[in-house]
Structure formats: C-alpha cells, structure tokens
Design goal:
Blueprint (H helix, E strand, L loop, with lengths): L7 E5 L5 H22 L5 E5 L7 H14 L1 H6 E5 L16 H4 L2
Parallel strand pairs: 1-2, 2-3
C-alpha cells in the first residue's frame, strides 16, 4: 500500500465457508487499516472475491450482514463482490481504480 499507493484491495475468500470468509474480510481490513495509518492513505476500499464458489445470493447477503454487524467501517469500504452471475442479481462490476494514479 505504501509503495504502490494502493487504495483498493481484492480479498480472496473461499465462497463456501461463511464464518471463514467473514473473519478473513475483517482481518484483512484490520491489517490494512494498520498499514493505512502509517502511509497517509485517507480511505481504503475492498473487493471480495469468492473464487466462483458462492452460488446463492443468500450467502453474500448473510456475509454482508455479519461484516456490517462486526465492523461498520469495513462494510462501508466493501465495494464489490466477484461471484458468478447466478449468485448476484444484477451482476456487479469488480473494478478498483487507484485515484492517486489516475489523477497524475
């Protein structure tokens, strides 16, 4: 994050183990915010990648509810989820851009 100026992190999840996915998302967020504090990044964003294992929208909805309950900031910084179209309606676009680089 510090060297490249990253503001969006793609978090790889299992997509079929809800407890693990929620904990991983929260832990990556915690570590990223520790690094963020030391490198001057104002706000982070996350993209959740379930490795095409998540087939039901209910899984994603429950994951989002749990993340929101555990850490509102992480929930608000979660931009997208990479899941098969069958799991999300309508499909989301999972692109993150580095605003610092695009403004240069």
């Amino acid at each position: 994050m510090e060297r490249e100026g990253l503001i969006c992190l793609k978090v790889k999840l299992r997509g079929n183990d809800l407890d693990w996915d929620v904990e991983r998302m929260l832990e990556v967020s915690r570590v990223a915010h520790e690094v963020q504090d030391g490198c001057g990044v104002e706000r982070l964003h996350f993209s959740a990648d379930t490795n095409e294992q998540c087939e039901e929208p209910e899984y994603l909805i429950e994951m989002l509810h749990r993340i929101e309950e555990a850490d509102r900031r992480t929930f608000e910084e979660l931009l997208t989820s990479n899941s098969p179209p069958s799991a999300i309606s309508p499909p989301t676009i999972s692109t993150c851009t580095n605003s610092r680089r695009s403004s240069q």
